[in-house]
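To: structure subgroup
Subject: Chain for Friday's discussion

All,

I'm putting the inputs and outputs inline so they're searchable in the archive.
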Amino acid sequence: MTTTQSQSSNPTLKSGALGFAGAATMGAVMMAPALGIYANFGPMATSAGVVAPVVFFISLVASLPTAISYALVSREMPSSGSAYTWLWRTMRPTIGLGVGIMMALYYFIAVILQPILFGLFFNDLLTYFGVQNTGFGTWLIGFLIVTVLVGILVYRGIQLSTHSVLIMMLIEAGVVTLLGLTIFFVKAVHGQLDFSPFNPGAALHGTNGLFAGLIFGLLSFTGYDVISTLAEETRTPRSLIPRATIAACVGVGIFWIVMSWFYTMAVPISDIAKYTTSGVTPITPIARLYWGGANILVIITGLTAASGVYIATIVGASRVLFAMGREGSLPKFFGQLHPRFRVPWNAMHVIFALTIIVDVIWAVWVGLYNAFSWWGSAIVFFALITYIFVNLSNIIFFWRFRREHFNVLLNLIVPLIGIVVGIYLLYNSFFVALWNAGWQMGQSIVVVSLALLVLAALYTLGLRALRPRLFTAEVTPALAVEGTDGNE
């Protein structure tokens, strides 16, 4: 496996900019500890009832094998291209490009979700201060405000982005915890602690409801993998990237299991369903019930949480497009960096422009909160496809190129579990659950996702026919250079 593309012949990101804390922070922020409760708890509870802790636990268990595969493969092949680079090198360039496009779509949809949510909390903020008749117009104002602010941060470099999201994450996680503890102690004092949320049998509509809720549980766990795209900007990526990946996945997962239990006891599930279907994030009225006027803290941290994840998703999506543009899999336009800040400005331009266009169209079509749910369901499709192939790359890479280090548990059993779980959840939580949910909020998601999959395949085959040399062994995506360790 010889790399003939030298890193000196290609534009490179700013190496050594991040340590362990910085990398783990970006993964944790993209998973969004607060938004797992603020945004996903509502539709999860509406679909599955009181068993949100069970849904989060199953989602964590389902995500761990893939997180382990990400850690193991990124240790051997650190690259901002992540799964795109790994599959290109491990299997075939054609497969690598196809998976790379799936991953790019996954990260792009993650970007799409954040300004939608910011706009919803912006409307809540205006309502708090007495503004009447909030709707699409006020939502759009909030949408544009956060897009401008995030753009200012991400265009100026990875370190500024990381420091910003760390502050946001600490504040929002603190507010979520305080409100959760308030609910817990109120219920405990009145002898109303409810342990049924830990019983899978209590799921609304039984197994079907549980799988429908898993859509949003899995959505919550998409994100830790963004850490792998930071390899070229991280000190000693072969050691830091794997540790940061597992830490982000497990740490945030435990946080959600505990916090979701508190929030399921806050109000009857029927009230949560009512809030969600009326286009209101249910945490805001819950906070009003327990904190009164102090519920503005939830609104503010909802805004900062969406902003932080917006930053993290832009960073991840732009790095994937940059890597593919640098190698020639996408137009070279994407593989260019700003000469001073060393960030992929061109990729960011395209991502921001498409985000504005797509979000406005979907908000008009299905409504504001439904737009978030629509794309939140779609992202699971592309995330699971990417995860299945990352697990496959774990098996094949170590068997072909690291046979002496091949471990039956870590390089065969664990990734096989990840593949089986991914396929099973893809079928039940995506195809079955959504296909039975009607056209606008179910079947249309499946159809659009499959259409994008077909377009990705056609692009890959077309590029192979037009530029066959790109798919030869002489053209291999570059890996990160190991730097010096340090603390972030």
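Points worth raising on Friday:
The chain has one domain: 14-463.
DSSP finds 17 helices and no strands in the chain.

D.
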